[in-house]
Amino acid sequence: MIGRPKFVLASGSPRRLALINQAGIEPDALKPVDLDETPHRGEIPRAYATRLAHAKATAALENVNLDDELRGAYILAADTVVAVGRRILPKAELLDEAAQCLRLLSGRNHRVYTAICLVTPKETFRQRLVETRVRFKRLSEEDIEAYLASGEWRGKAGGYAAQGIAGSFIVKIVGSYSNVVGLPLYEAMTLLGGEGSQIRFGWLNAV
Question: pTM (2 decimals)?
Answer without folding.
Answer: 0.90
